[in-house]
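Is this the right way to post structure tokens for a design question? Let me know if I should format differently. Anyway, here goes:
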């Protein structure tokens, strides 16, 4: 703890690489985990050792038992804070092995207004938060894996949010065997959300929807990515896409039919990333 009367606090770095515990006979009124850092590095400035770098590890856990009675341990993660009405004179920290992680615990004594209030909201690094409004839920995460390289910070995972119709769309009634380009691969320069897609048909033959860097040769092209397909054999056939799909830059949308089908249709809606 600080030797000064005001403020009166102490910061205690705890290396969590190996499971262990630490007893501390200190007087205080509040305990907080300020942060936890993976791969922490330190440097010395003006004779004081300070944190120099590392990555926040928001899922780190340190258990804290307050007071000599040693009641149930309280699990602390980043930004957890506990206060007591009077004061405690003993703390036990305990932790499971969390290789490469250093937790920074703050203990302060605010009995005479000499404490330090800490508020360190945890960033979303490996997890997510859910935002609910009007019965709808959107999941906000760090940059989605499929969006790596596009830059930006937080992204709304649109696969977890209500899917709107795309501003762009195309429909084709197969008049003969062949491939129709809905979205040219070269036109998708920053990525594209394929919002909805469907195929229905009746006449004998097959219909498919492909997404790839080049057009397929037909409905049986196994070298391209096919996401929808129906076999029509004088019976109604219908298939629709289950959820929105993100297409990286350079991927186009193509409809293929093996034969004419005047009563069938292939369609899609999408939004290009601006």
């Amino acid at each position: 703890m600080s030797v000064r009367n005001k403020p009166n606090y102490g910061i205690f770095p705890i290396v969590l690489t190996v499971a262990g515990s630490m007893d501390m006979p200190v007087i205080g009124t509040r305990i907080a985990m300020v942060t936890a850092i993976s791969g922490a590095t330190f440097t010395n400035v003006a004779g004081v050792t300070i944190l120099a770098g590392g990555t926040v590890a928001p899922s780190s856990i340190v258990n804290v038992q307050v007071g000599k009675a040693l009641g149930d341990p309280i699990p602390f993660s980043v930004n957890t804070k506990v206060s007591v009405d009077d004061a405690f004179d003993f703390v036990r920290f305990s932790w499971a092995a969390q290789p490469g992680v250093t937790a920074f615990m703050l203990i302060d004594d605010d009995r005479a207004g000499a404490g330090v209030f800490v508020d360190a909201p945890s960033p979303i690094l490996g997890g997510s938060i859910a935002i609910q409004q009007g019965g709808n839920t959107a999941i906000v995460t760090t940059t989605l894996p499929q969006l790596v390289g596009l830059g930006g910070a937080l992204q709304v995972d649109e696969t977890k949010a209500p899917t709107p119709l795309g501003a762009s769309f195309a429909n084709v009634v197969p008049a003969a065997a062949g491939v129709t380009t809905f979205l040219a691969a070269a036109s998708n320069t920053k990525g594209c959300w394929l919002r909805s897609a469907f195929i229905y048909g009746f006449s004998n033959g097959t219909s498919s929807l492909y997404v790839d860097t080049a057009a397929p040769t037909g409905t049986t092209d196994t070298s391209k990515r096919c996401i929808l397909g129906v076999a029509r054999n004088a019976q109604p056939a219908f298939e629709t896409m289950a959820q929105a799909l993100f297409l990286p830059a350079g991927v186009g949308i193509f409809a293929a039919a093996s034969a004419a089908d005047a009563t069938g249709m292939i369609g899609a809606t999408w939004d290009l990333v601006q």
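Format looks fine. Someone answered above. Worth noting: Residues 146-153 have pLDDT under 50 and may be disordered. The longest strand covers residues 28-45.
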